[in-house]
Specification:
Length: 247
């Protein structure tokens, strides 16, 4: 394919992305949802997909930090699948508190929004947005492992956006959204149970004097709200299969 043909194909794909596909039909959402739950609960699979949740967590710190006037200088995902984000600004005050709080709820928020968009026929737009964000944050990567992982994820998302059918794209986005929502709970419960003082609740406790357990409860509120949002978004596709019980 020459450059002109590639450009025409790209424009055609962008045009298809801007327009909404038909809303999803009952059948595959339960499978995508069940697969997502298993992906998070089965340890070998979770070790593979956990960086997705970690990445959204870290970019949640970065995004809220930017909105609060802080400067996002870089982030790292470690081989043990933990992460670290650096934002620069005042060391005390509401901005740093909001930035620290944002990490654990962010995967649930992004996951619920992705499910809502996919159910409404906008899975292609979600994939394109994810691809652009991944490409944009490459300049803030601060380790070779993180670089390799983000590039690999961008390649996978780009391939699905370019060649995936509307149904497969929607199924993938619903799966990813559900992984983020369930993964947000797994991360939050883990930090609440183990009480690691180096994690966000411990850092917030040192910063504010409020116990880490209370910060875990604060973070659980938006995670629960986003879980309900995701469940309601799936009520349409799941309702006919369950006799309208979700409505």
């Amino acid at each position: 394919m020459n450059w002109r043909g590639l450009l025409d194909a790209l424009l055609a794909r962008l045009g298809a992305t801007i327009g909404a596909d038909r809303p999803v039909v009952p059948g595959w959402p339960p499978g995508a949802l069940a697969l997502a739950v298993l992906s998070v609960l089965v340890p070998p699979v979770w070790r593979v997909i956990r960086p997705v949740v970690t990445l959204v967590h870290e970019l949640g710190h970065a995004g809220v930090g930017l909105l609060c006037g802080r400067r996002f200088s870089g982030f790292v995902i470690s081989p043990d699948m933990s992460g670290h984000t650096v934002t620069v600004g005042r060391r005390h005050g509401p901005a740093v508190v909001l930035t620290a709080v944002a990490g654990y709820p962010m995967p649930a928020l992004v996951g619920a929004a992705a499910i809502q968009a996919a159910v409404g026929g906008h899975a292609g737009a979600v994939l394109l947005a994810v691809l652009l964000i991944l490409l944009g944050v490459l300049v803030r990567v601060r380790s070779l492992f993180t670089m390799a992982w983000v590039v690999a994820l961008a390649a996978a998302v780009g391939a699905l956006w370019w060649s995936g059918t509307p149904r497969w794209s929607a199924a993938a986005v619903v799966w990813l959204g559900a992984v983020l929502v369930v993964g947000a709970w797994r991360h939050l419960v883990a930090v609440a149970v183990h009480g690691d003082r180096d994690q966000d609740p411990g850092a917030l406790a040192r910063l504010t004097g409020v116990p880490a357990a209370l910060w875990c409860l604060v973070m659980a509120v938006p995670v629960a709200a986003c879980s309900w949002w995701a469940w309601r978004a799936l009520a349409g596709p799941l309702g006919p299969l369950l006799g309208g019980a979700l409505r």
